[in-house]
Design a protein that fits this description.
Layout (H helix, E strand, L loop, with lengths): L1 H7 L9 H11 L5 E4 L5 E5 L8 E7 L4 E7 L5 E6 L4 H4 L3 E4 L4 E6 L13 E4 L5 H7 L5 E4 L4 E3 L3 E4 L2 H16 L6 E7 L7 H10 L3 E9 L18 E7 L2 E2 L2 H14 L3 E5 L6 H6 L6 E9 L7 E4 H15 L6
Bound molecules: zinc ion.
Length: about 325
C-alpha cells in the first residue's frame, strides 16, 4: 500500500495530473510495450495481445481528483475559490489544503451564515498571508489546491484517505499490469484526465484507441451506511463491484455477463452495482464512434468526495484479480 500512499500524496486536481502521471509511468514502464501521453494529458500504456488479430480492450482509471481553484484574494489576504469537480461543502470546512508548490492553508467559513445554508462563496482559504499582495506572491489566480492528507489503515482490512477516487483504481490498474503475464487483447491501459469535470480525457482516449471493448475502473458508493440518500446493495469487503449502471451508462449486458462469468469461474468475490448518482469513464467510452461494448469494475467505497474515503483491501485484491483474469479470457457475451 506504500505506492497508493505516495499516489494520494501527489496532487492531481483535474487539469493538473502530470505529477501523478510521472509517478505512474515510472511504475509501469518495465511491464508494458509502449507508453504515450496525448494532448489531454492522458497516460496510455499498451500491451500487445497474444494470437492473431486480437481485439482491442480499453481499460480506464482516472488520475484526477476534485479540488479548488483560486479566483481572487481579499484585501486581508484570504483566498476565495471555485470548485473543480463535485466538492461537498460540509467536508471542506476545517479542511487543511495544499497547493502544487507546497503552500499550505485551511478552509474556513463566514460564521454569520447559517451552516446549513453555506454556499461555496461563503468559504475562504487562509494561507497565512496578511494582504492580497502577499497572498498572490505565494500562489496565483488559477492555482489549484486539494485536501492535505495521506493514507492510513482503519482496522484490519480497511484503508482511508483523500482522493481514493480514483487513485485506488489507478493503483489497481498498476498492480494488475505488474501481475499480468499474457493478455488475449491488444490492451490499452488508460490513466485518464479530467473525469471529474465530465469524462473529458476518456472521450479523446477512446476516440484515438477505437476499442472493441471498454471497462472503466472507478470507486462506487456502498449501501452499508446509515440514513442514506440512495441506498444500494453494496457492502465493503464483499468483493469487486460489477457495474450495471451509473448516471453516465447502462452497461452492455454482454459485458456485465462476461465480467460475472469470469469472476464466478475464477472464484473472485463480486457484487452487483447499481449506482444512482455519478458517472464514470464508461460513459465516455460506450458512446465513442459507433458504440463500444462497455462495462465497469468498481471499488466499493465509503464517503466518496470526502477527505476520508474508505476502501477495503479485500475488495482491492478482488478488483486486481478480476482485471487480470478478464484480460486472460477471450470475450463472449
Ligand atoms: Zn471517480
Amino acid at each position: 500500500m506504500e505506492l497508493l500512499k505516495q499516489m494520494l500524496e501527489t496532487l492531481s486536481v483535474s487539469g493538473n495530473e502530470e505529477n501523478l502521471a510521472d509517478l505512474i509511468e515510472k511504475e509501469i514502464a518495465p511491464y508494458v510495450d509502449e507508453i504515450r501521453r496525448d494532448v489531454m494529458g492522458n497516460l496510455i500504456a499498451f500491451k500487445k495481445g497474444a494470437g492473431e488479430a486480437p481485439k482491442k480492450m480499453m481499460l480506464s482509471a482516472h488520475m484526477d481528483e476534485i479540488g479548488m481553484i483560486i479566483t481572487h484574494a481579499e484585501e486581508d489576504g484570504y483566498l476565495r475559490f471555485a470548485n473543480v469537480g463535485g466538492l461537498r461543502i460540509p467536508f471542506l470546512v476545517g479542511q487543511p489544503v495544499i497547493f502544487k508548490n507546497g503552500v499550505r492553508g485551511n478552509v474556513m467559513y463566514e460564521t454569520k451564515i447559517d451552516f446549513s445554508k453555506l454556499k461555496l462563496e461563503n468559504l475562504y482559504i487562509d494561507i497565512g498571508a496578511e494582504t492580497a499582495e502577499e497572498a498572490l506572491s505565494m500562489v496565483s489566480i488559477g492555482d489549484v489546491c486539494a485536501p492535505y492528507g495521506t493514507l492510513f489503515e482503519l482496522g484490519e482490512h480497511r484503508v482511508c484517505g483523500k482522493s481514493m477516487d480514483d487513485k485506488v483504481a489507478c493503483y489497481i490498474q498498476i498492480e494488475a499490469i505488474k501481475k499480468l503475464k499474457n493478455t488475449v487483447y491488444d490492451t490499452y491501459f488508460v490513466f485518464s484526465t479530467q473525469e471529474e469535470l465530465g469524462l473529458r480525457g476518456a472521450h479523446t482516449a477512446a476516440y484515438a484507441i477505437n476499442p472493441d471493448y471498454g471497462v472503466a475502473l472507478d470507486v462506487t458508493g456502498v449501501g452499508d451506511m446509515h440514513n442514506m440518500v440512495s441506498p444500494n446493495a453494496l457492502k465493503l469487503g464483499k468483493g469487486a463491484a460489477v457495474k450495471v449502471r451509473d448516471s453516465s451508462i447502462i452497461c452492455s449486458r454482454l459485458m456485465v455477463n462476461f465480467l460475472k462469468k469470469v469472476a464466478k469461474e475464477k472464484g473472485i468475490p463480486y457484487q452487483m452495482e447499481v449506482l444512482m448518482a455519478g458517472g464514470t469513464d464508461a460513459g465516455a467510452i460506450h458512446t465513442t464512434r459507433e458504440g463500444v461494448i462497455t462495462g465497469g469494475i468498481s471499488i466499493p467505497t465509503r464517503n466518496i468526495h470526502s477527505p476520508v474515503e474508505v476502501a477495503d483491501k479485500r475488495d482491492i485484491a478482488a478488483c486486481i484479480d478480476l482485471m487480470v483474469e478478464l484480460l486472460g479470457t477471450p470475450f463472449e457475451g
